[in-house]
TrEMBL record:
Species of origin: Rhizobium lusitanum
Pathway recorded for this protein: Amino-acid biosynthesis; L-histidine biosynthesis; L-histidine from 5-phospho-alpha-D-ribose 1-diphosphate: step 7/9
Pfam families: Aminotran_1_2 (PF00155)
Gene3D superfamilies cross-referenced by the UniProt entry: Aspartate Aminotransferase, domain 1, Type I PLP-dependent aspartate aminotransferase-like (Major domain)
GO molecular function, one term: histidinol-phosphate transaminase activity
Name used for this protein in its record: Histidinol-phosphate aminotransferase
SUPFAM superfamilies in UniProt: PLP-dependent transferases
Length: 369
């Protein structure tokens, strides 16, 4: 058999496969559990807004015709929601698509891209594919963000600073005062990319109104958002970015594929965006159950990170992959973390009350064994 690796760039060959988690069918085939709690991918237990199904009468044309390549209707709806010109909004096949677009447009060989660690792996992977060098700012022993380390990195003037706030997988976040201090430290030649996939869940005065702060900034920036989490449209793959100016957005649009978001996703996103009551119910459930899960885990003597996402990151104090496999036997899917230094940690999504109860019951069985 021929060596296919010889055709592949070294940067690509060195990237580990993405840990996308198990599907329901995979778990059914492996363990045949009566009920499955899928708590690995931070999906919305309430699902999408019922309004997202109302476009079905137009389905034939949505399937038959190419989508609007600029997603004008959705961009206008987002413009109205966030008070920012539609010419500064770019759509993506999920926000992860836009991470790739930004890296293709910005990162050159040997450029430094700074991120928080542990990280959403694609922040690092897309940087590496372009030949960039990743600089990690690791969380502190209490699992909070190292703001001093982040500011020191900003002073080194990297090509780009790319990280999630709240962090994925940890859930920790930069508060408003720390974010402003950090922003003051960023050089004008550094592009700031904030991945806010979980911003809807980050309630409280201590979470920064990032878009409002950056609107009055002279820095170059992109804020990434998604409809996959709080809006419950993960299967349709639709996300968006808000950029510091229309000119920069135009350059990013030259890099993405022309039809990177499909017509059904665009229509569903507009409908979901308009259902504020469903979003409020989703967020309220996540915040309530997040607190309950965190408290339950701490009562069991486990180290738990503070979280403003729809997930909780905790140390199971053993090999997380083995621990997660034991939970699978009870029909509970979680995500064992595999980045160096955090292989005893698990990220569990906040599900419904019943799903979270199933997780806690399974956890007790695994801990006793």
């Amino acid at each position: 058999m021929s060596d296919s690796k010889r055709h592949i760039r070294d940067e690509v060959a060195e990237i580990p496969p993405y840990n996308s988690g198990l599907t329901l069918n995979e778990v059914r085939e492996r363990y045949r559990p009566a009920v499955i709690a899928k708590l690995a991918s931070n999906e919305n237990p309430l699902g999408a807004s019922p309004n997202a199904l109302l476009f079905q009468q137009d389905l034939q044309d949505l399937l038959r015709l190419y989508p609007d390549p600029k997603g004008r209707a959705l961009c206008e709806a987002l413009s109205e929601r966030f008070g920012i010109d539609a010419s500064r909004i770019i759509l993506g096949n999920g926000s992860e698509d836009l991470i790739a677009v930004i890296c293709k447009a910005v990162v050159r060989p040997n450029d430094i891209v700074t991120t928080l660690y542990p990280s959403f792996p694609l922040h690092e992977d897309y940087t590496a594919v372009m030949g960039g060098k990743v600089e990690r700012i690791e969380i502190l022993p209490d699992l909070s963000i190292d703001i001093a380390g982040l500011i020191a990195a900003a002073h080194r003037k990297p090509r780009m600073m790319l990280f999630a706030n709240p962090m994925n997988p940890v859930g920790s976040w930069l508060g408003q005062d720390d974010f402003k201090r950090f922003l003051d430290a960023i050089d004008d030649d550094t592009l700031l990319v904030i991945d806010e996939a979980y911003a809807e869940y980050a309630s409280g005065d201590d979470y920064p109104a990032t878009m409002d702060i950056l609107k009055s900034s002279n820095k170059s920036w992109v804020i990434l958002r998604t409809f996959s989490k709080a809006y419950g449209l993960a299967g349709l793959r639709i996300g968006f970015g808000v950029t510091s100016n229309a000119g920069f957005c135009d350059f990013l649009n030259r890099v993405r594929t022309p039809f990177n978001t499909n017509s059904i996703a665009q229509a569903a996103a507009i409908a979901a965006l308009g259902d504020e009551d469903h979003l409020a119910r989703t967020v309220a459930l996540a915040i309530s159950e997040r607190a309950r899960l965190s408290s339950a885990l701490m009562k069991r003597g486990l180290k738990v990170a503070p979280s403003k996402g729809n997930f909780v990151f905790f140390d199971c104090e053993t090999d997380a992959s083995i621990f997660a496999e034991q939970l699978l036997a009870a029909g509970v899917i979680v995500k064992p973390w595999k980045q160096t230094g955090y292989t005893t940690f698990i990220r569990v999504s906040v599900g419904s009350v019943a799903e979270n109860d199933q997780f806690l019951n399974a956890l007790d069985i695994v801990i006793k064994d």
